[in-house]
Amino acid sequence: MKRIAFTLGDNLFVVRVGKTTNAKIADPKQRVVQTYTFSLKQWEYVKNTAKPDREQFFKLDGSNCLDCPLSGNSGNGKCYTHKYMQYSGFLSMLRSIAKDPEPPRKGLSLETYELIRSWCIDSYVRFGTYGEPSLLPIDLVRAMALNAKSWTGYTHQARKPWASDYKSFFMASAHSDKEAASLTGWRSFIAYDPKTTESSAVTCPASKEAGYKSICSKCSLCSGTSGKGRKNVKIQTH
Question: pTM, whole model, 2 decimals?
Answer without folding.
Answer: 0.95
